[in-house]
Amino acid sequence: MTLFRHENRQKSEKSRRVYALFEIAYTVVDFAAAISFLIGSVLFFWKAYETPAIWLFVIGSVLFATKPTLRLIREVRLAALGDTDDLADRYNP
């Protein structure tokens, strides 16, 4: 299994679909994290909104931590899609 190989993204229609779906998820998470930080930053201008601002920063941090997790899961799935071709060779010498 080879991870983070560009060829894995183009092996089949299924691999292209998996890659596209994960890119959409990654982009949605990226926007949500950025919006959380932006709104949280604005809320810090008012003392009364400090607690919601802190929560938005925590949420944004969790979302930013989700990004590399999504990439790793995507790459593992893409690499696993390619493993079926040589699976028979490994178990039928």
Tell me the structural class. Answer: mainly alpha
Q: Supply the number of structural domains.
A: 1
- Mean pLDDT over all positions: 86
Low-confidence stretches: none
Per DSSP E runs of 2 or more residues, the count of β-strands stands at 0
Order of helices and strands: HH
From the N-terminal CA to the C-terminal CA, the straight-line distance is 19 Å
Rg value: 19 Å
Beta strand %: under 5%
**Tally of alpha and pi helices:** 2
Shape: rod-shaped
Q: What summary fits the major beta sheet?
A: none
Helix content: over 70%
Structure description:
Helices cover 78% and strands 0% of the residues. Helix 1 runs antiparallel to helix 2 (50-91). It is built from two helices and no strands. The chain starts with 12 loop residues before the first helix and ends with a helix. The protein is rod-shaped. The chain has helices spanning 13-43, 50-91. The chain has one domain (12-79). The chain has 93 residues and is an all-alpha fold.
Throw out a few tags for this protein:
mainly alpha; single chain
Task: Draw up the topology in text.
Elements: H1 13-43, H2 50-91
Helix pairs in contact: 1-2
Briefly say what this structure is.
By secondary structure, the protein is mostly helical. It has helices at 13-43, 50-91. The protein contains two helices and no strands.
